[in-house]
Structure formats: C-alpha cells, structure tokens
Design brief:
The protein is of the alpha+beta class and 303 residues long. The chain is built from four helices and 14 strands. The strands form two sheets. The protein has a twelve-stranded antiparallel beta barrel. It is globular, with a radius of gyration of 27 Å. 37% of the residues are buried. The N terminus is likely disordered.
Length: 303
C-alpha cells in the first residue's frame, strides 16, 4: 500500500508539471505588445483595404503646337485577394481636363503577388483617353526590394485605335533617403520614343500629417518631348505609417497620367492605315512628329 501511494504521488506530481508546462505554453505571460513585436503578423500582398486620392496638374510638350496643360483627379483602391495569400489587386481611375478644351481620362488594373521583403510580380492593363484619341497598354509588372532601394519595371505592348501596336516600358530605380522621402530616376518608351524621367514623393509624416504626401515627376526625351506634373495625395486605410512601408505593403505604383503620354501628339492622315486584328483602320495617328508628317500633308493637328 505504501508503495502504491508513493507511485500515485509520483504520477500526480508528473501530471501537475505537465499541466503547468502546457498552461505556460498556452498562456504566455509576456505582455501582449511585446508578443506582437516578437511575433509580427505575417507579411501579405496588401496590409488592408487601402484608398488613395490625388489632385495633380502639369503640362505636355506638343512640339509645333506648343505645350498643353492637363489637370486630373485620381482615385485608387487596393485590396488583398481573399483565400490567396500574398495576392492583391488595385484599381486606378482618373478624370480631368486637357488643354482647357478636352476631357482626359484614364483607368488601370493591377493583379499581383507581393512579398514586402522581396518584391512584386504581376500583370497590368490600362486605358488612356484625350478626347477623342485613346490607347491601351497590357504588360507585366515587376519590382525588387533591397533595403532602401527599389527597382520597378513595366514591360509590355501598347495598342489601340490611334497608336501603333508596339513595345512600351517604364523602369524606375528608387531610393528612400528617409522612410518618408523617395527619389527615383527612370526610363520610358512611349509612342514618341525614348524618355528619361525623374520623380519624388514626400510623406508629410515628419510634420504630423501621415496620410498626406506631395509628389512630382519631370521627363524629357526624343521628338522634343517634355512633360512635368505634381500634386498632393491622400491615403486612407493603410495600417503602415511610413512611405516606404506604404509603397511595399499597401498600394502599388499608380501609372496615371504616365499612360496619357502616348496620345499627346496626333494628326489626321492623308491615307488611312489599314485595320489589323488588334484595331480598326487608323485615320488619326498619335506618334512622333516625323511619323505623322511622313503620312500627312497637314502634319500635327491636335493634342
């Protein structure tokens, strides 16, 4: 009996230690804030439902017709895709006034996989319109993140009723001088040729306005093309607090009004270009000055 009692006492002690160990694992005495810091939420493509609104203005050089102003209001929404970890989507829209006389509009769709510590891979499509000329783009979208450096690449084709079907690209090498200030240099290929670009964005977090940022771009290239614009952006819904985190965990790069550049110089053709499987007959072409003048006695007539 004495031996049985000792054995039962031993089993009870062992059971108590086991229960204590399990309870310690389930009920971590570490403060909650410290637990979150030590075990952060897994990174996803988009941290939450995010909205961005921008007001911008600028000008495009139209060669023999001089420059044309363009003012736009843009709105974007980015969201994680349910049940697909690390996949997200973003829709961009814009409406504006071009040269005080014409409506300008644009829309874009991003579908992508993203790891905020590594980069992004996705597909992208957009549409641009300066009454009545319009064009579309379909491309792959890629990004690589390395510390304060980011490399963003868009490569695909341009198509539509007023442009040739041809290769286009956007390449941006960005550096975050601080968590809230980004500068970049880049390259574009548009209907008028090769273009160099510089841009910046500054989140006003340092002066107490973490939802607001100012941004601007300037670009110049072949065919005497010059363009520049700037504006202010308001972001709503992001759970991140800095520009570098917002760019890698919330929204993705908005490519409006960049996509309007290919329809900023157009002319009526003497002999229409025959239709193809991707578009109808071109009677009004948006392209370089040399291309338009070679096909038209009146030359550049609009935009």
């Amino acid at each position: 009996m004495k031996r049985l009692f000792s054995a039962l006492l031993g089993f009870a002690a062992l059971g108590a230690l086991s229960v204590q160990s399990i309870a310690a694992d389930l009920l971590d005495p570490t403060p909650v804030a410290q637990q979150v810091e030590e075990n952060p939420k897994p990174a996803t493509s988009v941290d939450a439902l995010n909205f961005e609104f921008s007001v911008l203005g600028g000008a495009f050089q139209r060669n023999v017709l001089g420059s044309a102003s363009n003012a736009m209001f843009t709105a974007s929404v980015a969201t994680p895709i349910p049940f697909f970890e690390n996949f997200g989507a973003q829709v961009d829209t814009a409406i504006g006034v071009y040269d005080s006389d014409f409506t300008s509009a644009a829309a874009g769709l991003h579908l992508f996989w993203r790891d905020p510590s590594t980069g992004l891979i996705g597909i992208y499509g957009d549409w641009s319109y300066v009454n009545p000329e319009h064009a579309g783009r379909l491309a792959g979208e890629f990004a690589v993140y390395n510390g304060r450096w980011s490399l963003d690449v868009l490569a695909g084709i341009q198509f539509g009723q007023h442009v040739f079907t041809e290769f286009i690209d956007e390449v941006d090498l960005s550096y975050y001088f601080t968590d809230n200030f980004r500068g970049s240099v880049g390259h574009r290929y548009i209907s008028r040729g090769n273009v160099g670009n510089i841009s910046f964005e500054y989140l006003l977090n340092d002066v107490g306005h973490q939802d607001w940022s100012v941004f601007g771009e300037f670009e110049a290239g072949e065919d005497n093309y010059v363009a520049g614009w700037g504006g202010i952006r308001y972001a709503l819904g992001s759970t991140t607090g800095t520009l570098i985190d917002r760019d890698r965990q919330s929204s993705v790069q908005v490519r409006i009004p960049r996509n309007i550049a290919s329809v900023t110089q157009c002319g009526d053709l003497d002999v229409p270009i025959p239709a193809t499987s991707l578009r109808g007959e071109i009677s009004n072409l948006c392209s370089s000055e040399i291309e338009i003048n070679s096909r038209s006695t009146t030359g550049i007539t609009k935009n």
